[in-house]
Structure formats: C-alpha cells, structure tokens
Amino acid sequence: MSNDLERKTLLTAALSQLTEGVIITDNAGAILYVNAAAERLHGVAKFGVTPEGYSDTFHLFREDGSPYPFEELPLSRAVRDGVTVLEERWLIRRPDGTEVVAEGSATPVMSADGQKIGAVLTLRDRTLAIADERALQSALEVQKMLLSEVNHRVANNLSLLVSLLNYQARRSKSNETRELLSQTQSRIRVMSTVHAALYRVEGEGKVALAGYLETMLDKITATLTDSIEVRVVNDTTQDRVLPVGDVIPLALAINELATNSLKYAFKDVTEPTITFSLNTDDAGKTVLVYRDNGGGLPDGFTLKDSDGLGMTILQTLGTQLNAKIDYYNDKGAVFEISF
C-alpha cells in the first residue's frame, strides 16, 4: 500500500511540474486532474466538469473566435468516440481577459485488458509562435508584392533597352554597327526571357532548362531569320531544373551558338534545323548538346583561336560554369557543354 501511495505521489508531482498542460478525465469525461501548466493556460482549474461543460467552464473558442461546440473538442472526442486527436488548435479566453492560442492532443486511456477507463489531454501555449508565423506570412506577402513590382520594372527596362538599340541600328549607316547592335539586342533578349521565366516561377528561383531553351530558340530563329524557316528540335527525354545562376550563362551560350548557325551554317541547306538535348554522362554530369545541320565547323577550328565575339563569349561562359566544351562535325556543327 505504501508503495502504491509513493508511486501516486511521485506521478502527481511529476505531472504538476511539466511545462505542458495535462488534463485527465474518467471514463465518462468528468475531469479528475488538471496540472499547474494547464491551470495557468486556462486561468482556472475545476474538477468534475463533464464534456457538456468544457467550453463554458474553460472559455474555449475556435481560432477565429467563434463558439467551439463541446462535442467537437479534442477531449470530448477522445471520451465519446475513443479516438486520438492530434495537434488541434483552439482559443482560450481567460477570466482576466487575456487570450491564449492552445495546441493539443487528446487520447483515450485504456486499461491492461483493453477497456477505456478515461482520457487525457495534453496542451501547450502556441500564442507567440502563431503570432510569429502570421508576422512572417505578412512579411512574405509584402516581399512578394515588392518583388513583383521590381520584376515588372526590370522587364520594362529591358524592353526599352532593346527598343533603343533597334532604333540606333535602323539609323546607323554602317553594316558592321547594325550587326553589332543586332547581336547585342539578341543577348539582351536572352536575359529578358530568362527573367520572364523566373518571374513565372514560384519558390526557389529555378528553371526547367530544356523547356526554356526550346522557347528561347524559337524566339531567336523567328527574330533573326526572314527568308528561311529554321526548325528547332528538342531531343531531351528528361528535363533538368537548374538555379538561375546556371541557366543564364547556358542560355547565353546557346544564344551565341544559334546566332552563329543562323549567320553562317544554313546558306545551302533546304531544311535548316537546330537540335539540342540534355543528358547525363557516366560521371553524373549534365551534358547539353547543341547541333545544326549546316556546313559544319571550318577545318582547324578551335575556340581558343577564334576571333569572333560570340565564340569568345562562349569560352567565358564555359569558364563561369566550370564547364567543359567539346566541338566537332557530325552532319553539321556539334557542341557539347558538360557541367
């Protein structure tokens, strides 16, 4: 008997010192025990209260402040239905007028032979945590609104820059100047389309590369070709989602290759085609393959010795990505960028 009393005393003392609130009922739901933490949360501790009186006695409401029917309370459901209810939230209005957002779980208590003999509710104060969550959500919404405004302004500025370059190109009497301005416009359009793709992406600022490149190449071929139609073929079987820091240099690299193909490759080709694909090599690296069906690279061609601005840019972008660039002829020019 003494051992039973000691165990009961120890259990009661332990429950009273928990920082989490604990309420225990008998099989009918009448409250038998309320520990100190639960009393602090409610501002009141009453025994013998049955489920019908839970809401009124302990001033319980839904989070939005509407009445919380007693039969829907977690502890009532554990008593009545014998179910376990996890991580529910509700509002407590204390007698002193302060409010607490509580979060808790309720479960039936079973005897050794499987009979329900009571129920227990554990709860904790989530007021500050929820206030922080709401403040964070509000800040994120403001940030999203500001980012949307910045994106809109950037898009407008890039569009304006392209228009100004186009205006200067039309006024220039130098073919070389017009060509340089046209190439600059093309590069700015690439950055603009990357920006537009990111603007449509929620989350971590990543872009599906193959889908983006296909859209970009369609625009480039439509913009830079007047008398011929160039087909764009996406041979990728599985797309790659990459951070914008990788997408921009890759997109600019493909822009340079496509511009070069359109300028030099298709003079005697009846069905000009640009094909690209993404795959993975044996080392696990992503390989972006670009090819055209034109006349191919000239004999002795090397990126290092090429004096064209586009090829110089390609080398620079490869260095930026820490990428390996291979090139060869196979029914046209082929470039493989491994990164």
TrEMBL record:
Instruction: Report if keyword Isomerase is assigned.
Output: no
Enzyme Commission number(s) of this protein: 2.7.13.3
Where is the PAS domain positioned along the sequence?
7-46
Q: Which residues form the Histidine kinase domain?
A: 149-339
Q: Which reaction does it catalyse?
A: ATP + protein L-histidine = ADP + protein N-phospho-L-histidine
- State whether keyword Ubl conjugation applies: no
Top EC class, one word: transferase
Q: Which SMART domains match?
A: HATPase_c (SM00387), PAC (SM00086)
Q: Which GO terms describe its biological process?
A: regulation of DNA-templated transcription
Keyword annotations: ATP-binding, Kinase, Nucleotide-binding, Phosphoprotein, Transferase
One GO MF term on file is:
protein histidine kinase activity
In Pfam terms, one family for this protein is: HisKA_2
Cited CDD domains: PAS
Alphabetical list of NCBIfam families matching this protein: sensory_box (TIGR00229)
| Name of the molecule in the record | histidine kinase
